[in-house]
Amino acid sequence: MAGQLVDQVVFITGGARGQGRAHAEAVAEQGAHVVLFDRCSDSPATSYGLASRSDLEHTAKLVQAQGREALTLVGDVRDPEDVDRAVAAALDRFGRIDVLLANAGIYGGGAMHEVDRSVWDEVIDVNLGGVFQALRAVTPHMVERGYGRIVATASMLGRSAISDAVPYVASKWGVVGLIKAAALDLAPFGITVNAVAPGNIATPMVQNDAMYRLFRPDLDSPAWGDVESLFQQFHVQPVALLDPVEISSAVLFLIGPGSQHITGSVIDVNAGASAKFTA
Ligand SMILES: NC(=O)c1ccc[n+]([C@@H]2O[C@H](COP(=O)([O-])OP(=O)(O)OC[C@H]3O[C@@H](n4cnc5c(N)ncnc54)[C@H](O)[C@@H]3O)[C@@H](O)[C@H]2O)c1
Predict the structure, then answer these.
(1) InterPro entries recorded for this chain (predicted)?
(2) CA distances from 125 to 8, 11, 35, 108, 177 (A)
């Protein structure tokens, strides 16, 4: 089999659907075996449903259809024991983990003066704490081998802010700080640590009725057509949503053979929103 990741092992958190699924397909196409770790249950902090076990199995089938192996593991990135168990199971099955994609995340918002404390706790625990747990569990193995590629998923909201989104914005800025600090520590061991910062991506996180209602509280049951122009305003290029494979392309670049000296970096894929950032 040809490809830039032949027989590498890629561990993906939040791998059941959305961007995690797109990454799984993209790395399998390049020859990798894939470990898919997902909570597969809903969260009280989100107004939309998370992935199901059938989503997870469907992603595994997409990987297997490319002749690659897929290991599915149900667990919560917030729980250190779940994450440790998953890493141990992956090492037991494949003998190594070459790449970690710390992608799992949830959207939970709220304005500073009225935000629900439990939403804050869960969003920070999943989006920042979960990235920490995944890196904590996988990096001793990578240090021992002297090789590793890690990409965490931040957001354009980890590079800028919007109103009514304190937990999410804070969690994603935290991811950027975490990958930079980790990149420093892991540089001597052949391990790179970077982030991707997506704009609006066409996944169930944004394509759901609750999100549409958030954007158009004046309408009883808003549909995509009622919010499209509002989503478009986050970007500069004339597009409201990007395809998840656009993020997979940035991930493939960061974990590929030509990127061994890119670490501590963030790649924005946001249809020009970066043009409005200060740096
Ligand atoms: N969709 C967007 O517009 C957008 C933009 C910027 C950043 N992001 C980020 O991209 C990443 C992927 O999100 P997506 O767009 O694919 O959304 P998604 O909701 O389709 O996928 C997120 C996945 O993470 C899983 N997950 C959530 N909490 C978990 C936990 N505690 N433990 C294990 N798995 C968990 C979900 O079950 C789901 O499969 C997230 O970190 C998200 O914050 C998304």
Answers:
(1) NAD(P)-bd_dom_sf (IPR036291), Sc_DH/Rdtase_CS (IPR020904), SDR_fam (IPR002347), SDR_subfam_1 (IPR023985)
(2) 29, 20, 22, 12, 15
pLDDT in tens, 216-243: 999 999 999 999 999 999 999 999 999 9
List the structure tokens of 29.
């196409």
Probe residue for ligand 1, chosen from 203, 206, 235, 270 as the CB with the greatest number of ligand atoms within 8 Å: 203
Nearest to 260 by CA among 113, 148, 173: 148
**Ligand 1 centre distance from Cα of residue 103 (Å):** 6
* pLDDT grade for 2, boundaries at 50, 70 and 90: confident
What does the pLDDT look like over 58-94, one tens digit per residue?
999 999 999 999 999 999 999 999 999 999 999 999 9
Catalytic, 168? Answer: yes
Which CATH number applies to 9-276? 3.40.50.720
